[in-house]
Amino acid sequence: MKCLKCGTDFPDFAPSCPQCGYPNGQAVPPAPAQSAQPPVSAQPVLQAAPQPAPQAAPKVPVPPAEPDVSLRFVADSFLKLVKGFELDPIRKAAAIVSACASLFFLIAVSYSPMLWFCAIASIFTTWLCVRKVPVDTLAFAIAYSVFGLNALFSGLRGLTYLGGLYFFYNLDSFIVHLILYGFLALVWLITVLRRVNRHALRLSAFIVACVIGAYEFISIFLTLRYGALAAVANLGWICFLGVYALLIFSQDMAEMKLRRAAAPQTVQQAVPQQSWTPSAPVQQPVQPPVQQAPYVPQQAPFVPQQPQQPAAPSDSQQLPPQP
Question: What is the pTM of this model?
Fold first, then answer.
């Protein structure tokens, strides 16, 4: 079309004249772009019915577990307790053996009420082993003295009921009790005498403990006719005396090793010894041989000898008569 103002030809859809800018009243605006919409399906959409929330299962009350009081559980608990104290192998073995003695005595208490003394002494000894108390202290002497009260009261009871016949019917027990009293005396001497060499006392206590333990081991087979509890009591005696024998022997060996290790040091301090260290051989300078002059025999100078005159006879000499 032509512009109404300037007459310039321009397209019909142009909004204004490109020459003079006169607006075009007949311009058709371009069609707006339609937004893309998803096709609507003709079928109706079925919505899922709401489902009820799952209900939790009812809680069933669980009965509390019964505590395990079996012998194996007690032994495992004690082993864990002993391992927690970080003991050396000797102390650990002594603590376990002493605990076994306590268990044996507590089982056999119904056989003889006097075994309560042994049970208390063995429990106390177990605590001393766990606490790493030395064996030659007052605490161990008191523990073994309490253990000896069992033999003392048993002997007094036998004398009360049997009188003099006690020595006839229980002669072996009387002798063992006397040996036990001697063992307790050695224990107290080892505890009291600290400024002397206690090697002989410790060795004697070790031997006496082994002798009593051997007798109790034989008595296990002899006392089975009276019941199993008597044999269990004998096992307790063996374990309890074995604890002291083990501890006193190990301590004596440790002190002997320390003395032997300290002996060479004292000798070296008294007489210092020079330590020989191998060194390279010293090379001496080689001297040239000395040339000696040839041997020439020297003659003494000649001295003429004068004739000797006869000596004049003395008055005392008498001349022979002349003819």
Answer: 0.56
